[in-house]
Amino acid sequence: MTPALLLHGIGGRASLWAPTVAALAPRPVIAMDMPGYDGTRPALTRFPELADAAAALLDGPTDVVGHSLGGMIALELALRHPSRVRRLVIVASSPAFGSRDPAFREAFLAARQKPLDEGLGMAGVAAALVPTMLGPAADPSAAPAAIAAMASVDEAAYRITLATLTGFDRRADLPQVTQPALLIAGEADQTAPPRGMARMAEAMPDARFTVIPGAGHLLPLEAPDAFHAALLDFLR
C-alpha cells in the first residue's frame, strides 16, 4: 500500500493531521513537523531545503498531501524529486507568495510579526489570526485545535519560516508537474482563494480541482468529512 506524507501549514503542527492519519488507515502515514517547529532542529530558509527534508523521510513513491505552506513544499518536492511523489494533493495553497512587490512583502511580514514584536508570543498570534481564517461553516472544534497547535510553535522558527514563505514562486514550473494532482480549495478562503487554485490546476497537465462549500483556509479541520471524502476518492 502506497504510504502518504502529510505537510502542515505555517501555523500548524504534525499533530493536526491526526484525523487524516486515522482516515487513511491502514495506509502507512508520515506527518512531518516543519523543521524548527518543535525547537529541536534549526529552521530552514529555502524551499529546496524544505523539500529535501521531506524527501529524506521517504523510502519510495509516496502520495504527498500539503496544506497551505505545506502545499508549497509538496509542489517543490514534486518538481525537485519527481520519482518520490506518486500523487500530489495541494490544499488551500498557492504556487507563489502573494506578490513580487517588495512593499507587499514587507507589509505582510510586519503584520504577521507585530504581535510577536509586542511580546504577545505565539499564543497571541494564534488567538488573533486563526479566527480570521475560518469559513462560516467551520466545525466548532477547528479553532481550538488550530490555536493550540500554533501556540506551540517555536517563535524563532516561525519568524524564519515566514520570511522563507515570501520567496516562493513556482508559477512558471506548473506545466512540469507530471504527477496526477488534486487541488482542494475552501469556498470562503481569503488566503488561498478558489479562483487562484483553479488557475493553478489549469496550468498542470493532470490536475483536478474541487471546492469545499463554506470552508475557509483551515479546511481539513473545518470540514473533515468533506475533505477526507475528496482525498480518499482521489488516492484510490
Description:
With 236 residues, the chain is of the alpha/beta class. Helices cover 42% and strands 14% of the residues. It contains ten helices and six strands, in the order βαβαβαβααααβαβαα. The chain has helices spanning 18-24, 47-55, 69-80, 102-117, 121-129, 142-151, 155-165, 194-203, 219-222, 224-235, and strands spanning 4-7, 29-32, 62-67, 85-91, 181-186, 207-212. A six-stranded parallel beta sheet has the order 2-1-3-4-5-6, sandwiched between helices. Strand 3, helix 3 and strand 4 form a beta-alpha-beta unit. Helix 2 (47-55) packs across helix 3, helix 4 (102-117) packs antiparallel against helix 7 (155-165) and helix 5 (121-129) runs antiparallel to helix 6. The protein is globular and about 45 Å long.
